[in-house]
Amino acid sequence: MIQFNECSFRYQGGSHNALDGISLTIEDGAFVGVTGASGAGKSTLTYAVNGLIPHHFSGDFYGSVLVNGLDTVEVKPEELSRFVGEVFQDIDSQMVSSVVEDEILFGMENFGVPHEEIGRRLQQTLSLLGIEELRRRQINSLSGGQKQKVAIAAILAMRPDVILLDEPTGELDPESSVMIFELLKTLNREFHKTVVVVEQKIMLLCSYVDRIILMENGHIAFDGPTAAVAGEADLFRAQGINIPRVTELGEKLTGMGLYHGALPLTLDGGEKMVREVLADA
Ligand SMILES: Nc1ncnc2c1ncn2[C@@H]1O[C@H](COP(=O)(O)OP(=O)(O)OP(=O)(O)O)[C@@H](O)[C@H]1O
Ligand SMILES: [Mg+2]
Q: Whose CA is nearest to atom 31 of ligand 1?
């Protein structure tokens, strides 16, 4: 479980709080999306979970963050990394090796995973992500989606309970973006990982995650089940997050008195809405 208690953080030399009085709880097994405008504090929120704040970034830190009951101020990021792994926004700077399997081995070796276990985990992780054939490839020859999978594999090999991903689809085309979210869904549903994903593509979030947090200037502007997003569309628009087109269509049809149901957030929901409207016509 991750618990923020009235947490605020101001980077050294910063003119405002990057996190401003955040209180929230993320239960084990949750699948949560974090969105918001650039500079809202999304990456900073993830750093407060993995302990980079306050241990790596200096600044003023108030309140507390507990991960599996451990206070992030009291334990080192290395210790937290037993529970929490993050795929950072800039994966190129995260990758330390030039060959795929070395990248996955690196973390495990550093982490003190027993030697006889390492080979087994490498194999398991490659197969879980369906990237066995990439094993000996040069990382700089991979596509964006493949690279993202390797970064996820390197984290998963360390078997964290919680996986944080900071804009994993930022550089990906729509097809690869869906592939990554399908993978996250498998990790959450079948492998019971707690998944927290920072993402600007609201349609993707609405199609996959169970809960959405909208950040605005370091605080939480919305936090609720994904289904509740449609009713708060203006809050999201105010932060420059375009709500799904199907939701907008739903608003229009509702405004015209043609539709009276819940506003859809996904393509499936949109199709159901259109069928209902046509059946009534
Ligand atoms: N290392 C740093 N030193 C000083 N200020 C920082 C640092 N990193 C981020 N900030 C500031 O903290 C605030 C939150 O930044 P953060 O990177 O968490 O936002 P974000 O929501 O992840 O944005 P983006 O969508 O662009 O990635 C911003 O005002 C940013 O300028
Ligand atoms: Mg960011």
A: 39
